[in-house]
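Weekly sync, protein design subgroup
Attendees: M.S., D.O., the rotation student, P.L. (late)

Item 1: inverse folding check
M.S. brought a backbone from last month's batch and wanted to see whether the design step gives back something sensible before we order anything. D.O. pointed out we never logged the input encoding, so this time it goes straight into the notes. Structure tokens as presented (221 positions):
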């Protein structure tokens, strides 16, 4: 990194460097059709299923990372989503929701990468933690609102629990604190560059999931 990059807060650097990939993910045809009301609850259910595999990898990997000097500060129980996803899936698929649940190939690749980072590269895990959880606290609220309106889910009730952070009373303050953690991350400039690249990869992996969901639901292709 040059002197300018070094002087830039890491939270700003990681956000601006991954902006293009972030925009591409948000602009996917599948997500556009889902939020635009052109897809049914079956598409929303399939999307929620894919999220479960990714968050299972994120949160299983987090168990061993608490003491890690780089990733440890980011492991915060109030962010965990797996239990909420399981409650949503029970609502969407019924009590036997695990039966027949399979990841799309892109989802399997995404979850595998998250699991590998958690196991072998804690700094890389931060990139996936950041792209997922801060996105849930921000843009995820748009998805919750659209889902409630389109498919009649109770306000912040079953079906959209994933997007409800009951233990975070002030999301704006929490996100400020999270950005402070990024700025204080225990990594040199070269490692920070690698984290930024992994952040871009995370968005690309997410976009690939949207692409495959669009193939499952052709109206979004």
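Designed sequence read out in the meeting:
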């Amino acid at each position: 990194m040059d002197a300018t990059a070094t002087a830039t807060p890491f939270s700003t650097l990681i956000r601006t460097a991954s902006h293009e990939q972030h925009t591409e993910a948000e602009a996917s045809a599948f997500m556009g059709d889902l939020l635009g009301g052109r897809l049914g609850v079956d598409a929303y259910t399939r999307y929620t299923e894919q999220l479960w595999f990714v968050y299972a990898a994120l949160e299983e990997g987090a168990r061993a990372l608490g003491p890690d000097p780089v990733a440890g500060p980011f492991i915060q129980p109030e962010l965990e989503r797996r239990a909420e996803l399981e409650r949503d899936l029970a609502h969407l698929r019924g009590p036997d929701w695990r039966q027949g649940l399979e990841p799309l190939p892109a989802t399997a690749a995404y979850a595998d990468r998250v699991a590998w980072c958690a196991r072998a590269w804690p700094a890389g895990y931060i990139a996936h933690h950041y792209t997922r959880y801060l996105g849930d606290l921000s843009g995820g609220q748009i998805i919750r609102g659209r889902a409630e309106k389109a498919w009649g889910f109770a306000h912040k009730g079953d079906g959209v629990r994933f997007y409800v952070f009951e233990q975070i009373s002030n999301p704006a303050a929490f996100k400020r604190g999270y950005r402070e953690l990024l700025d204080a991350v225990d990594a040199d400039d070269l490692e920070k560059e690698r984290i930024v690249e992994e952040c871009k990869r995370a968005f690309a992996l997410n976009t690939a999931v949207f692409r495959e969901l669009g193939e499952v639901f052709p109206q979004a292709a």
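Discussion: The two ends are 39 Å apart (CA to CA). The mean pLDDT is 92.
Action: P.L. to compare against the previous round before Friday.
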